[in-house]
Amino acid sequence: MTLRSAAPVSFDALPNPRGGAVRPAELALAEASLAFEQHEDCTAALLRASHALRGAGWLSAQRLADALVRVSPLASDDPADAQHVRPLIGASLRDFRAALERHNLRELSCSPTLFNHYRALCTHLSEHTPGTTVAFEDLALTARPVPPVTLHAQSADQLAHLRARYERALLPVLRSQAATGSAVALAVTNAALDELDAVFGELAGPDPYDFWRLARACGKALRVSGRATGETDARRFYARCNLALADHARGIELAPRSLVRATLALLWRDYALFGAAAEDADQVEVLHDYGLTVDWHVAGTQASEMLWEKSATQVQSFTAMHSSLTRELGALTVNANAYEDFLQTADTSISALTDHARAADQPEKADPSEALQAGDAAYRLGSAACALGLGQVALLADALGLAWRRRAHAAVSTPAVRAHVVVGAPAASTLEQAAEALRAALHKVAAGVAPAGGNAALTALRRAIEQGGA
To answer: Which of 289-303, 356-370, 435-449 has the lowest mean pLDDT?
Structure first.
């Protein structure tokens, strides 16, 4: 049986030539595609792909595979239904295979193309199983903890004034189309967006986990990417912020969790796909406060990106044909040189994290700068693990980075600020347990074994972060 490669597909993010590959999943999806084309049952192959992706910690990709598993039987159950669902499955399989072969974990989480397939599959399922709904953040933030987010108390008069300003500016934004309208229409829309940004700034309180600070960063990111007008998700964001402002005026102290998750995922999306530049530093800082990291990029041309694509494909093909250039970590196959580089940088990061965690058990010596350094060490480890393809290690490291960030913000030294900041500091024991779980996972990686476990430490971190304290 000949298994053809996936058809070339244009995605937003660049491929990761040194990233790990889940070969069992790639093979299973190729088998599923062939079976599908021959009108045979592809569910078993899709299940194998799902299991392999879970073993590698590629959890967002696993969710898409699971959706395909649930939908695939419908392609043969009812001829009338099959006529509708087969094009949906075929397109999803083709793009999913192409994305997996790019070995970019952030793209697998944040690709609008993959999410559109995921939503379409789940929408079709909802016709058979009512109540099934999905949102972009369900894929982008899979298994990631999200802390509680506050609405800073303000006077009723001030909130009424700001809401009136917001609603006046909101209408032209909701009516706007993509940036192809007349110069006058664009000027009106840009002025309205300026006003919304200004209102976000006046609403924001001193708490680093204030919702309006997050909303302001999201608004800036949407404008930088050119997505603030004409995009459904952007219009929904601005409209939901108006509802949150009404909640704020009623004295509600916490922003709705669903809105926080949606705003955070929207803020992260383009930076996860394209990377960030120096002028994006403020938005990246907000992302770090929520446990999300990005790569920094140097501006390139379309020609240079095409050259990168071609070079990445050549590197991946050459590496796949020479086993001496790879290492096997369970379901994950990694580039040998990238693997050695990762072990060297990870060893430094985990030593620093362990030292910081032990010192954190002395509250009288709490130092925000030390906690920020620990958070940065965890994020460096998480980014390196993500680049190598170690999904579970990356998730645990990012969650630990978020926990340290919250500890830093909880230890602010200015009394005037501390009076308004409600950040709960995760217990030192939770930080130390997570650092030890990371160390154990890295020992397995160094021994050439798939890093199993870490779920208990991630669960403890999630509980501490989402409940606002120890």
So the answer is: 356-370
Count CA atoms closer than 13 A to 144's CA, side-chain side: 30
Phi, psi of 277 (to 5 degrees): -105, 175
Tokens of 287: 């992302």
Q: Which of 22, 18, 10, 35 is nearest to 64 (CA)?
A: 22
Q: Which of 17-26, 56-65, 393-402, 413-422 has the lowest mean pLDDT?
A: 413-422
40 domain residue, yes or no: yes
Give φ, ψ of 326 to 5 degrees. Answer: -130, 165
Query: Is-contact 86 72, C-beta < 8 A?
Result: no
- For 425, residues 6+ apart whose C-beta sits below 8 A from its C-beta are 406, 407, 410, 411, 469, 470
Are both 275 and 389 inside the same structural domain?
Answer: no
Q: If you ran DSSP here, which 8-state letter would residue 334 be given?
A: E
pTM: 0.89
Residues 135 and 249 placed together within one structural domain of the fold: no
CB 113 within 8 A of CB 92: no
**pLDDT computed for residue 451 by the predictor:** 84
Instruction: Name the residue type at position 242.
Output: N
Which tens digits make up the pLDDT trace of 40-93? Answer: 999 999 999 999 999 999 999 999 999 999 999 887 766 666 678 899 999 999
